[in-house]
Amino acid sequence: MATHTTRMLIIGSGPAGLSAAIYGARAGMEPIVVQGLQPGGQLTITTDVENYPGFRDVIQGPWLMEEMQAQAEHVGTRMMWDTITSVDLSGPKFIATGDGGDIYEGDTLVIATGAQAKWLGVPGEQELGGKGVSACATCDGFFFRGKKVAVIGGGNTAVEEALYLTNHSDDVTLIHRRDSLRAEKILQDRLFVNPKISVLWNKNVAGFDAGADGALASLRLVDTQTGEESTFATEGAFVAIGHAPSTELFKGKLEIDAGGYLVVEPGTPKTGIPGVFACGDVMDHTYRQAVTAAGTGCMAALDAERYLAEREFAEAKKVAAE
Prior knowledge:
The protein is α/β, with parallel strands linked by helices. Strands 1, 2, 5, 6, 7, 8 and 19 form a seven-stranded mixed β-sheet that branches. A five-stranded parallel β-sheet has the order 10-17-11-12-13. It has helices spanning 15-26, 61-74, 137-140, 156-165, 185-193, 290-321, and strands at 3-11, 32-34, 48-49, 59-60, 78-80, 84-88, 94-98, 103-111, 115-117, 133-134, 148-152, 171-175, 197-200, 203-210, 216-223, 229-233, 236-239, 243-245, 276-278.
């Protein structure tokens, strides 16, 4: 068991955490990144990435994260293969404990633990991930231009995804297990007047089935009122039943909203504790894109640098006054 000390401790190694690390390292803060259970974040389970700026051709998610990590290390970041099991935010140093007993101490803390899409947990769902089944229309909708697609869910996320998909498809079906939607009324109004969208009510998705080419061909549906089984042919299915932010470590220590996301000062990555910052999908329930996560990671590092500079200046003034 060892103790690792840094001016900037970063928990999480997706685009947010690694962007914070790159900026922090270039500012001479010698950041430590504790990688967590999914090093590289959600992009490591994403194949084709077509919307990250700077690449004219399709790139692979895992490759992009390898490059980000290599860049962070090149400028002076220390990467730690560990998973944090507890945190102490009482200060003045912020302390995180790894599952092997190692201690990580930071003068500032950047939380970039991300979020995971919620899945249905039915047959074929994971097997057909990237082959017609997705949890992000803004990430993958482009690949279904002119194709018949379905969105599964009934909240804001599902309705927004269905509306977004009409940019690419003239045949979008929203499948919901109840007979009414939970989405905000203004979104429902937009959905119901859109001629490209139809709704299947009272249907549970019981499975995803592939065609001869190995890609998604149809959904198995069960009527929630009659129990009747049916098949729905589709080339793309978007599971939109929400996201689960990874905030377990911070319950009772930082403010968390009703959706489970860390609450930050609007327009900043600042949490309620000075010196503790949150960036990426753990605090962003609106955009949830790699590029926005990277942007908030940059913001967290810049704010952490300013926080330390101001604290050190105040301490120097105090010493001088004595």
